[in-house]
Amino acid sequence: MNNQQIELLAPAGDLNRGKIALDFGADAIYLGAKAYSLRARASNFDYEQVAEISEYAHHLNRKIYLVSNIVCHNHMLEGFTNFINNVMQYKIDGFLCTDPFIIKKIKTNYPNVDIHISTQQSVTNSKSALFFARNGAKRIVTAREVSFKELIPMIKNVQKKIEIEIFCHGAVCIAYSGRCMLSSNYCLRDANNGGCAQSCRWVSTLYDEHQKYSDTFSMSAKDMCLITRTKEIIDAGVSAIKIEGRMKSEHYIATVVNAYRKIIDKTYASDTSSNDEYYADVLNAANREISKGWFDGEPSTFEMLYHEVPKQVNQLFACVINKKLSDVTYEVVSRNYFTINNTFQAVGVKLKHIEEMKIVNIKDQFGNDLSVVNTPMSKLTITLDKNIDLSPKDILRIKVNTNRL
To answer: What gap in Å lies between CA 223 and CA 200, rounded to an integer?
Structure first.
């Protein structure tokens, strides 16, 4: 097994989701500022929020990486020096970069800061990785099109001169790790400058010159999920695994980060007990169909999203634990609709398993009994049917039966 523990890297679409990712076990988070980032539709961070999340992460002895991975046009060059000087005062641990101008500018002005080469550079071989090592990079994020069979010799050939990070979970672009012009051509939104409209996922009608084949055709691959391959990835010597999803929900981030955290920790502890509950948890959190991506080689027809698939019911998020009042009573903040008749599951970093329970009493802030909660962000008091010892920031969600396993 790899002696250096693998880093679990999670997305931070905004301040709250960044804190949730850290609370549920991410070793590091990656986030975009209001400029020079490829997720223009995410909330992203202003300078004050960068300062706050940096302090929060470093208090937990975790890291933050700033995503500056756009491909610069000329009009973007002039403001970058001022931008980088502003964000560096907040103790950024590293930058995710694509453009050579940005890479050189950061290394020239701040030679000790870590540079991670974004998946947008589509690094698929060890020679490319070593090129970036010679030019000051500490880590490369491989193209998502690199198979595990290709990854093994790549790690061996770089001889620890540069770290290797791979995506383990989330969306997979139709083009080489995001170098796509569909969005620009269809709706004038440049995917390589943060405006991707996910045009490859649109449902289209497919014709040839003679006939119509389908009214429900799309070009995208199914989302990647490598949680069942975590031990293989660790044993191969990968330095970091990354979860995609700066635009995903709080519940999604908490669930997916928690599941990977638990399995990573179990792997290093040589705990061979079943991981089925965490595999199932990740499946239930997904809002699209999943596959292994390119991990086992070129995806088959089954692993591409060639036809529209009905969206699975996945909005399970009920409330967040605010504080413990007694062994079975908690103050919570609601997030979505739930009733006293639901069965609930608790997810938390300190919990060894996903716990199941019923709520036997719900009171609003005035002490009135409720049977239905239908107002988000309400402060409530709930009483459980058993003592589970929940902690602040743990989440409760509605148990939904699924046949996706």
So the answer is: 13
Q: How many residues does the chain have?
A: 405
Helix (H, G, I), strand (E, B) or coil at 346: strand
Going 76 to 182 to 9 to 14, the CA torsion angle's sign is: positive
Per-residue model confidence as pLDDT tens for the chain (405 residues):
666 899 999 999 999 999 999 999 999 999 988 766 655 555 568 889 999 999 999 999 999 999 988 887 888 788 888 888 988 999 999 999 999 999 999 999 999 999 999 998 999 999 999 999 999 999 999 998 899 999 999 999 999 999 999 999 998 877 776 667 777 777 777 666 666 777 777 777 888 888 887 777 777 778 899 999 999 999 999 999 999 988 888 999 999 999 999 999 999 999 999 999 999 888 878 777 888 888 999 888 788 777 656 555 555 899 999 999 999 999 999 999 999 999 999 999 899 889 999 999 999 999 999 999 999 999 999 999 999 999 999 999 998 754 443
Q: CA–CA separation, 237 vs 235, rounded Å?
A: 5
Measured CA angle at 262 (ends 256, 268), to 5 deg: 135
Question: Helices (DSSP H) in 229-364: which residue ranges?
Answer: 230-236, 250-268, 276-285
Q: In three state form, how does the secondary structure of 51-82 look?
A: HHHHHHHHHCCCEEEEEECCCCCHHHCCCHHH
Task: Give me the amino acid identity at 346.
Answer: A
Residue 133's SS3 state is helix
Residue type at position 286: A
